Amino acid sequence: MRASLVNQLRVLVPIKRTIDYAVKIRVASDGKGVDQNVKFSMNPFDEIAVEEAVRLREKYKDAITKITVVSVGPPKAADVLRTALAMGADDAIHVEVPDKASANPLEPLGVSKILTEVVKKAGEEEEVGLIIMGKQAIDDDASQTGQMLAGLLNWPQATYASKLEFPSGKPEKGAEAQVTREIDGGLGIVKTKLPFVMTTDLRLNEPRYASLPNIMKAKKKPFKKLSLKDLGLEDAVKPRQEILKVAEPPKREGGAKVKNVDELISKLKEAGRI
Amino acid sequence: MIATAVLPRVALRSANTSVRTALPLRRGFATSHVDLANTLVFLEHKKGIFNPATLSALTAAQKLGGDVDALVVGGESEASEVAEKAAKFPGLKKVLYAKHADFANNLSEPLAPLIKKIVESNGYSHVCTGHTAVGRDIFPRAAALLDSSQVSDIIGLEGEDTFVRPIYAGNAIATLKSSDKVKIFTVRGTAFDAAAQKGGSATTAEVKPDAVESLTDLIEEKVSESSRPDLATAPRVVSGGRALKSADNFVKYIEPLADRLNAAVGASRAAVDAGYADNALQVGQTGKIIAPELYIAVGISGAIQHLAGMKDSKTIVAINKDADAPIFQVADLGLVADLYEAVPEMLEKIK
User: Fold this and answer.
1) What's the pTM?
2) Which segments constitute the Electron transfer flavoprotein alpha/beta-subunit N-terminal domain (chain A) (predicted)?
């Protein structure tokens, strides 16, 4: 039996193109950013968000009408949107911002304002009922955007999620959700109602690899481009923070090796550490 | 104690604030018009026990100069009591407290509007707390409501508008200048000393929240019970990695060594993901960031993600079979050995 259309859910997954997590970062010669001529990929926490959305549909079949991925970034951010489409998302929205390299990147506040408008605009065709996104980007390590977006939308938030469940049956508008969150010292379980913003922790799931046929299929999926002008946000997202300097962290002295346990213990005693 | 709906403002401060508000935001504005900071610190506590990162945030706030007030929230019965405790923290002028059944669980939806209300009615120029699970959850939401671009996880302050923070998992350190009217930041607990908790005499005042909207409810918390020192603040930490091979070995090798040294137990992500240790013990970019006096990494290769969580430790010891493991590049003392032999030998020889 098909669920009635009114209760079905559209899931929005904001994703970010970041320097690949395995790349050893180098501070740029101008001292204002890091070297950008390296491998980029989808922020790992966002991959988990895409995976969770796709799994929700696999689990609840008809309950989810559409998974829309959105990225705010330079032209090359289109690559990560294609990856997300190949993982199983249905359509993509790319809010294109000029590529100004590393100088003064968009801040989470600006991104959350843009996403707020995207949610509204997407709602004109079909309302968004759940937003799943990474808990932080591995470049700026800010861990802010999901919370800011929830605040601006006045939606509930469930951050640092390691489990998402729908005790009442399935995800539909107004349904209750139970989210297990990773907190200092253990886990916290919260209950909230759709729509809400969830941010993903690493343990939520293990993202799939996109297969070649799915990568080919992804090329044909709907892909919409928007500019800040389209959203009326050209001024609203001006950076509030000026990066004065980016520096290498203090280097640690490469370690001396000890021969055996006795030497280790005596050196630790000498240093007053034990 | 008198409950006040809108808190009294200092006349001079409110004059300054209105001048600031009237001027457009411009880069470099803050330095051309320096006035003393007026800072609110959100003091995080759990049943009256203050989070250590909160005490570091207090130290950071005091470095800004100017007045420092604190905010304490809690359930109906606890808030005023905890506020009295906080009033003894030296250097605080005033402790504001707000009580509501929904404040006890530190949920962001009711607390972010409360912070916005207090900041706006008192004209605070700076608001900070620890970069903890609670601080990370509440503060960005409050920042968005105040239209402020938050600065997360600061490790240094270079003036009232200039912050130092790690980016790219600590592989680069950024210094940035904020032009926000209200500067909202979270503080890395290990980067500032903990503020003293005795000797002060601040006043306390209740703030009545506006209608509290509860969008989420806490059902339960599962906190790992442990008699060992707290990982985030322990002076010594013994950490185990993938090489432990099982949860049993973690108990058999890592825990006794930690107990012998009166150390906290930590784990790498690999050990946590494999189920050898609880995820609350994870040290790294996505877990806890710690800086103990002594960090002993047992069977941990030293992935970038892990190093981000412990490379500021005073002394790092690595015990690993693989002489080429990256952990040896940061370890002060490295022992290339099989942990199953080295750890029991250490236990025997450390008395």
Assistant:
1) 0.90
2) 30-235
The reply to whether residue B346 touches residue A261, judged by beta carbons under 8 angstroms, is yes
Note the ipTM here.
Answer: 0.95
Which whole-number Å values give the CA distances from B127 to B39, B186, B210, in the listed order?
6, 8, 20
Decide if A240 is inside a domain: yes
CA distance A141 to chain B (A): 6
Task: Tell me if A163 is assigned to some domain.
Answer: yes
Q: Which among A144, A190, A203 has the least Cβ separation from residue B218?
A: A190
Distance between CA atoms of residues A43 and A49, nearest Å? 10
Q: What are phi and psi of B260, to 5 degrees?
A: -60, -35
Is residue A3 a part of any domain in this protein? no
The reply to whether CATH 3.40.50.1220 applies to domain B236-349 is yes
Report CB contact under 8 Å: A157, B109: yes
The residues in A 179-238 lying below 8 A from B, measured between CB atoms, are 181-193, 196, 201-203
pLDDT one digit per residue (tens) for chain A, 274 residues: 444 556 789 999 999 999 999 898 999 999 999 999 999 999 999 999 999 999 999 999 889 999 999 999 999 999 999 999 999 999 999 999 987 644 457 999 999 999 999 999 999 999 999 999 999 999 999 999 999 999 999 999 999 999 999 998 889 999 999 999 999 888 999 999 999 999 999 889 999 999 999 999 999 999 999 999 999 998 777 889 999 999 999 888 777 899 999 999 999 999 999 8
Measured in angstroms, the CA of A174 and the nearest CA of chain B are apart by 12
- What CA–CA distance (Å, rounded) separates B183 from B166? 18
Q: Which of A138, A186, A258 sits opposite B221 (nearest CB)?
A: A186
Residue B146 · residue B178 · CB < 8 Å: no
Number of domains, chain A: 1
CATH topology of domain B39-206: Rossmann fold (3.40.50)
